Amino acid sequence: MIPGAAEYGVDVTIDERAVDDLLAATPADVDPAPALSFARNVFVPLTTACRYTCTYCTYFDPPGEAELMSPEAVRAVLETGADAGCTEALFTFGDDPDARYERIHAQLDEWGHGSMHDYLREMCELALDVGLLPHSNPGDLTREEMATLAPVNASMGVMLETTADVDAHAGPREKSPGQRLATIRAAGELGVPFTTGILVGIGEDWADRAESLLAIRELHERDGHVQEVIVQPVVENERWRGGSPSRGALRRAVAMARVALPEAVSVQVPPNLAPVRKVLDCGVDDLGGVSPVTDDHINPDYAWPALEDLEAIADEAGIPLRERLPVHERFLPSIFGAGGGGDGREGGEDGGREWLAPPIERAITADDAAGARYRAVLDSRASGASAD
Ligand code: SF4
Q1: What is the 229 CA–ligand 1 centroid distance (Å)?
Q2: How far is CA 136 from its chain centroid?
Q3: Per the count of CB atoms within 10 A, which of 67, 113, 138, 361 is most buried?
């Protein structure tokens, strides 16, 4: 039983034979992707407060030191991103700050917000006003919290990381695999295109990695909502001295992800967090986001590569690099030409399901500069043009 699954009512059970089958997968079993995709985004690290204390994480700050971006600071980042031609506002987040973060709660209260999620929703609305499509990663969410945020997000995400009970998550505020799965399930039930992933090297074993990928697949098979699965190696930093996975281990993990997931679900390896050139032939088809204007606030030790670096990676592999929106085309209504291709489940149908919330669809169809920017990305994908 996956830890926390019963507590959060997640009925995901993984067949041991399926785990064994996936454990046999190697890089020799997968083909290199025919193209690579990426999105132009800006990071908005809304708060560095987090109720958890994962031992490999340099993102969170303790109470008294954690920051909360003001609406003015958020607007400045968003406007810079829109001016630079980005399409995505990537709201990064510690998990919901607990009661220890008195200063954060006092500040939220002063700005008229009862919770971080309430504030996040307002900042997503601001992003749409400024001309960017929000993609929020606010950690674990209840179904009600997800429902509050879904209408103002083009897509959302949370890393599953692992279904294993690892020491790196232990302590008085322990992150629960069951709760993560409940968040991913809520996204599917509410029709939110979703990004998740595994973190490799935090104490899990190979069977745990296989189980994690199969759990993601099972939730995707129910609702068809998973658009990308990130395979990210843990890296050494001032809080983590547990080492990083070897090149061979990372190659095997990426290949397992490609074998485990339906073709329509992208396997993403972000070049700022992993040696992507060394694993590109293992089925990677997405490089995540590239930001021309801000640093990578999730892992400040690793600089986000410039767009030229992504082009160099694609050139060396001899495959095209194509820009995408934060929501993948198959979730878009067929009026957008590139979309309407079903929900990505093996043999699945979308059943006419509407994945885009009205504010997001209005933003993409709007007769303004931002709408034109979004549609230009879709047009370039429909025509098969590579990124400039
Ligand atoms: S990895 Fe995420 S949940 Fe864990 S401490 Fe860092 S910000 Fe919080």
Answers
A1: 18
A2: 8
A3: 138
